[in-house]
Write a structure and sequence with these properties.
CATH class: Mainly Alpha
Helix content: over 70%
CATH architecture: Up-down Bundle
Distance between the termini: 41 Å
CATH superfamily: Phosphate transport system protein phou homolog 2, domain 2
Number of strands: 0
Number of helices: 6
Order of helices and strands: HHHHHH
Amino acid sequence: MDIRSAYHAQIRELRDDVVTMGSMVDKAIARATDAMKAQNVALARVVIEADQGINDHRWSTEERALRAIALQQPMARDLRIISAVISIVTDLERMADHAVSIAKMVVETSDEPLLKPLVELPLMSDLTRMMLADSITAFIHSDIDQARGVIGRDVHVDEAYQKIYRELLTFMLSDAATINRATRLLWAAHDFERIGDRVRNICERVIFSVTGEVSDLSMATGD
C-alpha cells in the first residue's frame, strides 16, 4: 500500500471510529432512558460503568486524528474532515456524560416513586436518538442537506423541553413536597435538551467540513 492509499485508509478508519462511537452513545442514551422509565438501578449502573469505554474511544480517536494531521499534512478538505472527527467525538463524549447524569439521577432517586408517568422525557430521548443517527449518516456521506434537516428538527426537542418545564413547574407550585422529584426530572429534561444541542453541533461541523464556510453555521453555544 502506497503512502496516499494508506492515508485514505486512515480517513476511512476515522470515519468508522465516529460510527462506532455514535453507536456507543446511542446505546448509553437508550439504556439511561429505559433505566429512568423503570427506575432500574442495575441498568443505570451499566450506563455509568460503560462511560469509561466511551471516554477511551474518544481519546484514542482524537490521537489518531492528530497523528494523521502531523504525519500527512492534509490539504484543506481533508484537514476539515479530520478536524470534524475531533470535534464530533468530543460532542459524542459529552452526550454520553448527559446519559450518565440521567443514570446517576436514577440511582439517587431509586427509593422514591416517579412523580408522574413519563411521556415527554422518552419522547425527547427518541427525538435526540433519531437526530444523532441521522447526523452521523450526514457526516459519513458528507450530506449537508441532511445535516441542515437535522438542525431544523432540534426545535421539536426544545418544544418538548418547554412543555416539561411548564408541567413540572406547575407540580412544584401546587405542592412543595414534589419539588425534589420534579427538579430531578427537570434536570433529566435539560440533559436531553443538551444532547439535542450537541447533535446540532455535529451537523454544523458537517456543513463546515464540506463547504468550508463558517457562514453556514448558526454557531450554537455549548460548554
